[in-house]
Amino acid sequence: MVRGQPVANSSSEGRIVEEIEALIDELELLKGEGSVVLVIVNSRDVKEKLINKIVERFNANVVEVKRGQEIIDMLKKGENFEVLILILPDELTEDILNALNNYRELFYRCGFPSVVICNLDTLNKIINYAPDFWRYRGSVYDLTAVILPMKFSSLEEVGRFIDMCNYLLSIVKNDNERVRLLIELADAYVHKFAMTADENDLKVAEDFAEKALKIAEELKNEVLIKEAKDLLKIIRTYNSYLSPEADR
Amino acid sequence: MQAFKNFKVEPLKSEEEFKEFYVERPEQTPSPIEEILERLKLSDNPEKYLFLGFRGCGKSTELYRLKIELENLKEFLPVMVSIYELDVNDIDIRDFLVLLGIKLIQTAKEKGIRIDASVEEDFRDFLTNVSHVREEEIKTASSIGGGVDLFGLIKAKLGLEATTRETIRKELTLKITELISRINNLIIEIEYESKKMIVIIADDLDKLTRFVQAEDFFYKNHRLLTQISAHAIYTFPISLGFDVRFPHVANAFDDYFTIPQVPPFKKDGNIWNEGFKFYENVVARRMDLNLIGEDALKKAIMSTGKLSEFISIVRESCIYAHRRRDSKIRVEDVRKALDKLRTFYSRTLTEEHMEVLRSVHETKDARDRGVEDRIVRDLLFSLMLVEYKVDEELWYEVNPLLIPVVREE
Question: Do A49 and B191 touch (CB under 8 A)?
Fold first, then answer.
């Protein structure tokens, strides 16, 4: 049995819905006032679903933060939206940490709640290098333990899905769609690996994800680059469980 | 009575109807369809456009014209989607995307385009899953006849049953990206099999009845519309085009096009010959001009200044003439039809509305006082205010039908 292998269970979906709904309720209460809600999430899918759900309910501005100044500008000038969603990058720069720490009061003066999304590594950096911001935070939602329910109920189903994606891959003309299909295939093989624990499935998943990343980079499609990278990160985490010596 | 039948307030749809009734717009207030067509021909990547226009200005007619033009070109496959196939009073983006997927399959089948079984089954399984439709329901529906299959059943249930809508929306809350992926899979497959590029023409989205509904659809969820991997033209509620958030939404699409109303008069109120002629031609295409008095025609044109309202007034006037057992429409028939419609409009006017209407009539400009103020947008949505654009000159006017009411005040 592989350590840390994602296990599908019926409570996973309930858990994510519950957590997200609690967050939505809180945002509803915070409407019109400044506040910081921290959400810690590792899974790309969970993050995507969380954002979709917020955007669906509120007039939200979604910012993938690259520089600290972006945070300051949004908080100072931000208007015409109800919720600000700040997605912090995986590699937190000093510039961003300083912006969070030194301008923390802006989060409460701005007239709208901010949802700050980060992963567990990033959170550790915030606690250590932006301690005042951490002290100023409002609620914290930990979605790291949430694993989305399995997309497939049986090996046969995942097999059919893989066959369909391979077929579509052989006829697709649009390069962005080609990348999406490669990512779907990689993801399907990760699910297959979760069912079979067969290392070859993980290898195939990695190959597809790498191909997807290469084309996405050629296309300069930031969204797809991020998706492919996120997936590769998950695949490599599983790989490190499989061969812990490779990590040392 | 044939004239009465020819004045249907419905968009032209078939090639025959276009041949018989379509009138070219004056070149100073052109239809954007030609430009859209050119851009689609030149583009290799899926383009996403917003299509704006006031109600009754001929948007749907122009979209059907686009559909026919596309059908006549071998490289395109137009897919028309109208929210009237759902419950227009209760619709959200998830319902629309489900309908879009179903329409893709139905259009392919109508055109005899084969869809790979694995792609169709994958979509079918997904829909069965999110709709909770049971196998027995499908069997019962298909046994009733009329060729109802799972897709037809879900489409019907989405339009008629609030519980089905709730179920699907709840399920799709966490699976909306999966739905979009499946729609894009269908697009890849249908485009490959047909050797044509799909052009989605989403009509009637501008008729989302409640402002909040339209806001949710476009301002909160427009990103989902841009993720569809085919050319797409989405009609857009013109009232939202006056919102400060519009530039932000418009930027997410490749471009937006506005179809102008054709004014029969200039900004100063004098007759604009090209516009006047346009309306005259609309009548001439539908009936012998000898069947309407010159003054009656002029009255109908100058008192409406909007295509669908003009057609509806002439239609109503036909009935009044018929009741008088007269074969010719006289000015009193038109006056009667106008009075009836005017009463209908003026009943809903508040003092606040009147203030805005008076100001617009004087200044030919229309602006709300603040972001929260929606009077101008409401009046534009209800067609009590009209936007005109000739060449590059833009101005606003009170619905010509209401000008006497505003003047009286």
Answer: no
